[in-house]
Design a protein that fits this description.
Blueprint lengths: L2 H7 L4 H17 L19 H13 L5 H11 L7 H10 L18 H16 L8 E10 L25 E8 L4 E9 L21 H17 L6 E4 L8 H9 L3 E4 L10 H12 L1
Parallel strand pairs: 1-4, 4-5
Antiparallel strand pairs: 1-2, 2-3
Helix pairs in contact: 1-2, 4-5, 7-8
Length: 288
């Protein structure tokens, strides 16, 4: 395609299209990235070199939650003759280091323990040896908790005024037990869950005992799951779940086995092996 034809297709002038094609060609030949539409020499040359970049990554490796202002201070402290603003450092981190500042995700230390990794490997190897296919023969089971006082973390209000949301002192919560396959939702079961009663309120005779999901609740849920599978003649026989205490009772194991199904327990600290975790993540985004 000629430059003139390309210019007409993208509704740009011939000279602009020619310049962008030249930039892209040079970038490909030199193995570099290029920001189309920008000139080769725009703005002052960055004060930060490869040595500074390595230093930034070292500090981020030591503390991932460090702020851009702190990084700037450490740079100026370590490199005595460097004078730079946090804005310039922020630009360098985003555009040169390809780093973004995002919400942190808590991860247990034991998750990457050598023993846990070995158990995870052995479990997956055993599933493969048995021919367990997650896409065609497995039902994924788990529960998730929700708080009705949850709201978006940001909102709008007049300048100089806080964005306030009215909530209850101790908002009610609920949990949902779910069973899904790689293609469908088998069943969902909602149950009210409350926090333990405050000591000051224990004398209140009207306070009913509060509790979460019990073994009997889980048994009822499993019965729903197996009934739905058989009612729709779905060819699934493995129930994949974590090793929570209510999942490993003798009653649950016997109930499942008697009906021709098998339970596959996930190795410890391995929730990411259960696809239903992604399901809960999407559902919580909608609820919250």
């Amino acid at each position: 395609m000629s430059i003139s034809v390309a210019a007409k297709k993208v509704t740009l002038s011939y000279s602009t299209t020619k310049r962008r094609v030249k930039q892209q060609t040079e970038a490909c030949n030199n193995g570099k990235d290029v920001f189309l539409g920008s000139s080769k020499n725009t703005g002052a040359k960055s004060k930060l070199t490869e040595e500074h970049t390595v230093f930034i990554f070292e500090k981020l490796h030591e503390q991932t939650t460090i702020s851009c202002n702190d990084v700037t201070g450490l740079l100026c402290q370590h490199f005595k003759y460097l004078t730079i603003t946090s804005r310039a450092v922020n630009y360098h981190m985003r555009n040169k280091c390809h780093l973004t500042y995002k919400r942190t995700v808590h991860q247990l230390v034991a998750r990457d323990n050598d023993v846990i990794i070995l158990q995870r490997y052995e479990a997956v190897s055993a599933w493969m040896a048995l021919g367990i296919n997650f896409f065609s023969v497995c039902v994924f089971i788990d529960g998730a908790g929700f708080n009705r006082n949850k709201h978006r973390s940001h909102g709008c209000s007049n300048v100089g005024k806080a964005c306030k949301i009215t909530v209850e002192t101790k908002g009610p919560s609920f949990s949902i037990l779910g069973a899904i396959t790689a293609h469908d939702v088998i069943t969902l079961s909602k149950r009210e869950v409350y926090a333990s009663i405050n000591k000051e309120r224990k004398a209140d005779a009207g306070s009913a005992p509060k509790k979460g999901t019990t073994g009997s609740d889980f048994m009822e849920f499993i019965e729903q799951v197996l009934s739905n599978i058989k009612a729709h003649d779905i060819p699934y026989r493995y129930l994949v779940m974590d090793s929570a205490a209510i999942h490993k009772t003798i009653d649950v194991k016997d109930w499942v086995t008697e009906r021709g199904f098998e339970i596959t327990y996930l190795p410890p600290y391995s929730p990411f092996l259960n696809p239903i975790e992604k399901f809960w993540s999407k559902l919580k985004d909608v609820v919250n």
